[in-house]
Design a protein that fits this description.
heterodimer; A: alpha+beta; Immunoglobulin-like; rod-shaped; B: alpha/beta; Collagenase (Catalytic Domain); 5-stranded mixed beta sheet; two-stranded antiparallel sheet; 10 helices; 29% helix
């Protein structure tokens, strides 16, 4: 057998071994070895973004009962864009431009007001990842008490 | 700090073979479901960045801005994880370092206390890029040395908003995505370890969420070679919004009936098989109609505790994966390479 034939056989053998190795590494369990992204030091994988906890969102306790026809609602929100209070007397929306935001709502006489407070979180793009852009909603204050205002007449 | 990487195709093939053989050797032998696994204790180094603020009588930052005391947060988190794992994991803080300065950012920037307080009060002027310098933290707190000396199993960083920490990040040989890109420059460490990043402005619920995202990353990796019905993790996290009619438990951001991220208080009724996970590995059982009453009506901490309670937690293994998923989440060294 001449040198060329030996080399050819070695080459065929090497291809077979690599093929078998590839099958063993990549095709077992019917899929790829690893679906996770790989990253070098300092690199951010483009296929995965860190999951974030929701921004903080708190509403201070309300005053109830009250004989007033308005009430100031104090709301704080991380990276806030707008605040909306929805209740029996209407919907009140304001930009989140002070920290915390105080938003004044009207109250109907002799009416129980059940408040739903929503905070729109500003959308932020960091590299390939987008955060925020969602709305947080609550019907309770920072202590877990329901946001209910009883208007008892003037 | 950075380990020099070998180059060349042969070396890469060699690394692949080495990792695969390690993986095969680490696989769990099949065994029937049993009782509670042997409890473990994990040693924690707690590092609290809580600088004093000169313009506020040298009070600590958390006091000046009305934020939480880290100590009860840590205890609440430890207690919740102990309870939800049925006593499997006990985290023990073996050292606490309270640091009187701000951590250095990746670009070298460091806040001055008064500047930070002003930025917080006006919600502007926060430094960008926000990311912290992990190399500096690794060095300053001798993290790799403490892990290699078998004194510490993981690190918990505690700081203020905009500290630049990842909620969790993994270091050590073969470190993988843990809700953050792995610290590949730590591959020379003796074993893998996780660095958590907490925020004392927030509560225990948010700390549990950090742990939950860690759990999601690690379990996704543990099941990375499983497809279809064999991938129990993919089944566990199904929810109505993504898998209509096939909801199971969901994941951190999505309860079975959630329609958007963090929507844990949704009263919409959907069909879910979450209760079957209480009998794991026997997942037979019909779906039932559920709503947020089952997981705390929107309370972040209650939802997350409910979710952790459903993570498989018994002895036994099948298909090379343990029935006790806590084992992987708590100690990433147990995840196959």
């Amino acid at each position: 057998m001449n040198n060329t034939a030996v080399r050819l056989l070695i080459l065929i053998g090497a291809v077979l071994i690599i093929g078998l190795l590839g099958w063993w590494l990549f095709a077992r369990d019917g899929g790829s070895v690893d679906v996770e992204p790989t990253a070098g030091a300092g690199e951010t994988p483009v296929s995965e973004c860190p999951q974030a906890t929701p921004e903080f969102f708190t509403v201070e306790p309300v005053t109830s009962p009250t004989d007033q026809l308005t009430q100031a609602i104090t709301v704080d929100l991380g990276n806030g864009e707008t605040i909306t209070v929805t209740t029996e007397s209407g919907t009140f929306t304001a930009p989140f431009d002070t920290f915390p935001k105080v938003i004044t709502i009207d109250l109907l006489p002799n009416t129980t007001h059940n408040l739903t407070v929503e905070g729109k979180v500003r959308e932020v793009v960091q590299g390939d990842c987008t955060y925020g852009g969602y709305v947080l909603s609550t019907t309770t204050d920072r202590n877990g008490a329901p946001l209910v205002i009883e208007q008892t007449g003037e | 700090m950075t380990k020099k990487k070998r180059g060349g195709l042969l070396d890469s093939i060699g690394d692949l073979i080495e990792d695969s053989l390690k993986g095969l050797a680490q696989q769990e032998p099949d065994q029937p479901a049993g009782g509670a696994p042997q409890p473990i204790t994990r040693r924690v180094s707690l590092i609290v960045h809580n600088p004093r603020v000169p313009s506020a009588g040298n009070e600590r930052l958390n006091k000046v801005l009305g934020w939480n005391d880290p100590a009860p947060l840590v205890q609440g988190y430890i207690d919740d994880l102990h309870e939800c794992s049925r006593g499997y994991v006990t985290y023990k803080v073996v050292e606490t370092r309270t640091v009187n300065r701000f951590p250095r950012k990746a670009d070298g920037f460091t806040y001055k206390a008064d500047d930070f307080v002003n930025a917080w009060r006006t919600r502007q002027g926060f430094h960008q890029p926000d990311a912290v310098d992990y190399d500096a933290l690794l060095d300053e707190f001798d993290m790799i040395q403490k892990v290699d000396a078998d004194k510490v199993d993981e690190f918990w960083l505690f700081a203020f908003p905009y500290a630049g920490y990842y909620e969790s990040i993994m270091a050590g040989p073969g470190a993988f995505w843990c809700n953050a890109p792995p610290l590949t420059q730590t591959a020379h460490a003796g074993r893998r370890f996780v660095i958590m990043g907490f925020n004392y402005q927030r509560g225990v619920g948010e700390m549990l969420e950090n742990f939950g995202h860690r759990a999601e990353s690690i379990m996704k990796h543990a099941f990375r070679n499983k497809r279809g019905d064999d991938n129990l993790w993919e089944r566990f996290i199904r929810h109505e919004f993504k898998n209509p009619g096939q909801a199971e438990v969901g994941w951190m951001h999505y309860a079975p009936n959630s329609e958007r991220d963090y929507d844990w208080g949704n009263k919409r009724k959907v069909s879910s098989r979450w209760r079957t996970w209480q009998n794991f590995p026997d997942l037979r059982g019909e779906a039932q109609t559920v709503d947020c009453n089952d997981w705390g009506n929107g309370d972040i901490r209650l939802h997350h505790k409910w979710w952790f309670n459903l993570l498989p937690h018994v002895e036994g293994a099948a298909d090379g994966i343990a029935y006790n998923w806590w084992k992987y989440i708590v100690d990433p060294n147990t995840v196959t390479w």
